[in-house]
TrEMBL record:
Keywords: DNA-binding, Transcription, Transcription regulation
The organism's taxonomic lineage, starting at the top: Bacteria, Pseudomonadati, Pseudomonadota, Alphaproteobacteria, Hyphomicrobiales
SUPFAM superfamilies assigned: cAMP-binding domain-like (SSF51206), Winged helix' DNA-binding domain (SSF46785)
Name of this protein: CRP-like cAMP-binding protein
Start and end residues of each HTH crp-type domain: 128-202
Family annotation (PROSITE patterns): HTH_CRP_2
CDD domains, per database record: CAP_ED
Organism: Methylobacterium persicinum
Domain of life where this protein originates: Bacteria
Pfam families: cNMP_binding (PF00027), HTH_Crp_2 (PF13545)
Length: 232
């Protein structure tokens, strides 16, 4: 029943090319966007061109399942790679949440897990060193990709460019380049052909002070499984 309800309200997916906006800041948030495939991000950009990535969106992620309750969108969502995105009209998702306690719980858990990730990013920007931030992000992305079946052992996709990493971690591209060199020299990770391999997981986690509990993966993955099952 829950899958049927989702399949009824999920609009056909559309393709958004890499580096294009999926939605712009200030838009009327009448619909919820769902990343079907590819990588996207929430971000803020200033008039001088400076950008801050505030979260990474992976396949199966809902871009704020309750955003339609606001008057305007306070951030943009951009495609980091080519992405396939489906929409759910705000009134439709509200109706489904009212009709299905299981879906209502799943979407609330997904929103709470996203907020927990945001808090951890704030901790990174405020208290982790540059190398710790990058190590932590690598651990987080690997854990999230593993949870949705997109990692192979300790190897996972990593399409983020050095400017993307700089915008996410509040650093310069020069600093990101040096930090990557340090992590490679320490034999903690390898990056090749847009794929990340964590060579020494425990050492990297200790360096990053990474505890995956904040990801609430068991709590958040119900909505992801449902969306993945009914991809348009």
């Amino acid at each position: 029943m829950d899958l049927y309800l989702l399949s009824e309200i999920l609009e056909p997916a559309r393709i958004v090319e890499a580096r294009a906006d999926i939605v712009e800041e200030g838009e009327d948030p009448r619909a919820v966007n769902v990343v079907v495939s590819g990588w996207a991000c929430r971000y803020r950009q200033f008039e001088d061109g400076q950008r801050q990535i505030i979260s990474i969106l992976l396949p199966g992620d809902c871009c704020d399942p309750h955003i339609f309750r606001l008057d305007r969108r306070d951030h943009a969502i951009g495609a980091l790679t080519q992405v396939s995105v489906a929409r759910i009209a705000g009134h439709a998702i509200a109706d489904v949440m009212n009709r299905s306690a299981a879906l209502d719980l799943a979407f609330h858990r997904e929103a709470l897990a996203a907020a927990a990730i945001q808090r951890e990013w704030t901790v990174s920007l405020g208290r982790r060193s540059g190398v710790e931030r990058l190590a932590h992000l690598c651990c987080e992305l690997h854990a999230r990709l593993t949870a949705v079946g997109l990692a192979e052992g300790m190897t996972c996709p990593m399409p983020l460019t050095q400017p993307d990493l700089a915008d996410a971690l509040g650093q310069t591209t020069v600093h990101i380049n040096r930090t990557l060199q340090d992590l490679r020299a320490a034999r903690l990770l390898a990056l090749k052909s847009r794929r990340l391999t964590i060579l020494h997981p425990e050492r990297l986690r200790r360096l990053a002070k990474f505890d995956p509990a904040y990801l609430h993966l068991r709590a958040a993955d119900d909505a992801v499984r449902r969306i993945e099952t009914i991809r348009p």
